[in-house]
Write a structure and sequence with these properties.
Rossmann fold, binds adenosine-5'-diphosphate, two-stranded parallel ribbon
Length: 336
C-alpha cells in the first residue's frame, strides 16, 4: 500500500520594495513555512505579477526584488529540495486559470474586498488619479485564487488576522465546482498561533513602509546603529529607573532571539538593575550572531546568479508539473 499523499500547501509573498525581507517577515511568515516544509507538499511562490498591481510603472525593479526574496528564503532555511521555490511569472498556468476564474467571479465580490478599497483610497489620497487604479488591482484576489487553486492546495498558511483574505478564494472554488464539477478542494487557512507581531525600532509594527525594519541583509554596523536608536521604556531615563520590558522594543526583540536567556535581563530591567545601554549592547551581539549565517548564505547565493536561476527554474518545473495537471482537469471540466 502506498503512503497517503501529503497535503498540499501554498504560500506566497510579494516582492515589494527592494525585496529584502526583515525580521517581521521572518518571524511572522517564513519561520512557520520552514517548520511546515517537512510535513507538507509545499509550494512557495514569489508572486511577482502581483507586484505589478502597484508597481507597473517600475516593472524592471520587480525581477531583482524577486531574487532578493528567494535568497532570503533559502538563507533563512527554506530548502529548495523539500519545497518548490519559484516565481509566479515562470508558471504560465497561473495566468490561464486567472483568466478563467475572472469570468465566473462576480464584480461585486471584488469591489467589496477591504484591501482594494484601502489601496484605492491610499492612491487617491496621494493624488494619483484614476489611471493608477487598474483592472489588475481590482482583480488581485482573482489572481490570488488562481495562485492557490492551480495547485489544488488544501492549506494556505496565514497570520492570525489574515484568514479573511482566503474567503474569496474559497468562494471562487465553490462557484467553479458548482458550475463545472468538483475540481478544486476548498482550501483552508492554516493559522499559525505561534507567530508574534515583531515591533520595529520605533515601537510600531515592523514594516517596510514605516522605515523601522531590521533587514536580514543589514550589515552588523547597520544593525548596531538601528538598535542604538531603538525605542525603549520612555520613563526609564537613568539606569536605576525601573523598565517595562513589555513596552520596550529592545526587550521584545531580546525575547524572540534569546528565548532562554531573556528572563534574567527582563527581571533586572524591571528592577532598575540594568540600563538601556547594556540591553542594547547585548541585543546587538545577539542579533548579529543570529544574522551572521543568514547574511553569509544570502551573499553566496546572490554572488552566483546562475545557481539561483537554477534553483528557481527547478522550483518552477515542479510547480508547473502540478499546475499543468490541474489545468487539464479544468479544461476538461469546462469542455475546452
Ligand atoms: P511589510 O509590512 O514590510 O510590507 P508584508 O505586508 O509584505 O510586510 O508582509 C509579508 C509577510 O510578513 C506577511 O505574512 C505578514 O504577516 C508578515 N509580517 C510583516 N511584518 C510583520 C511583523 N512586524 N510581525 C509579524 N509578521 C509580519
Amino acid at each position: 500500500m502506498s503512503a497517503p499523499a501529503r497535503k498540499r500547501l501554498l504560500s506566497g509573498m510579494q516582492p515589494t520594495g527592494t525585496g529584502a525581507l526583515h525580521l517581521g517577515n521572518l518571524e511572522g511568515a517564513l519561520r512557520n513555512w520552514i517548520r511546515l516544509q517537512n510535513d507538507y507538499e509545499m509550494y512557495c511562490c514569489i508572486v511577482d505579477w502581483h507586484a505589478l498591481t502597484t508597481r507597473f510603472h517600475e516593472a524592471r525593479a520587480i525581477a531583482p526584488a524577486s531574487r532578493q526574496v528567494a535568497a532570503d528564503y533559502i538563507a533563512s532555511g527554506l530548502d529548495p529540495e523539500r519545497c518548490a521555490i519559484f516565481l509566479q511569472s515562470h508558471v504560465k498556468e497561473h495566468a490561464e486559470l486567472h483568466l478563467l476564474l475572472s469570468m465566473i467571479t462576480p464584480l461585486g465580490w471584488l469591489e467589496r474586498v477591504p484591501t482594494f478599497k484601502e489601496k484605492r483610497e491610499l492612491m487617491e489620497a496621494r493624488g494619483e488619479g484614476d489611471e493608477t487604479v487598474s483592472y489588475g488591482l481590482l482583480g488581485y484576489p482573482c489572481l490570488q485564487a488562481a495562485d492557490i487553486l492551480v495547485y489544488r492546495a488544501h492549506l494556505v498558511p496565514v497570520g492570525r488576522d489574515q484568514a479573511a483574505h482566503l474567503e474569496i478564494t474559497r468562494e471562487i472554488a465553490r462557484r467553479f465546482n458548482r458550475l463545472y464539477g468538483e475540481v478544486f478542494p476548498v482550501p483552508e487557512a492554516l493559522i499559525d498561533e505561534q507567530t508574534a507581531i515583531v515591533p520595529g525600532v520605533d515601537g510600531r509594527k515592523m514594516s517596510k513602509s514605516y522605515d523601522n525594519a531590521i533587514y536580514l541583509c543589514d550589515p552588523p554596523d547597520v544593525v548596531a546603529e538601528k538598535v542604538r536608536n531603538a525605542f525603549t521604556t520612555p520613563t526609564k531615563i537613568r539606569k536605576t529607573d525601573p523598565g517595562v520590558p513589555e513596552n520596550c522594543v529592545v526587550c521584545q526583540l531580546r525575547r524572540i532571539y534569546d528565548p532562554e536567556g531573556y528572563r534574567i535581563s527582563w527581571e533586572e530591567d524591571r528592577a532598575g538593575a540594568r540600563g538601556c545601554l547594556q540591553n542594547k549592547k547585548e541585543l546587538i551581539d545577539i542579533l548579529n550572531a543570529f544574522l551572521d549565517p543568514i547574511r553569509r548564505r544570502r551573499e553566496e547565493l546572490l554572488a552566483d546568479p546562475a545557481e539561483l536561476d537554477r534553483i528557481l527554474l527547478h522550483g518552477a518545473e515542479r510547480a508547473r508539473a502540478a499546475a499543468a495537471e490541474t489545468m487539464q482537469q479544468v479544461r476538461a471540466a469546462m469542455g475546452f
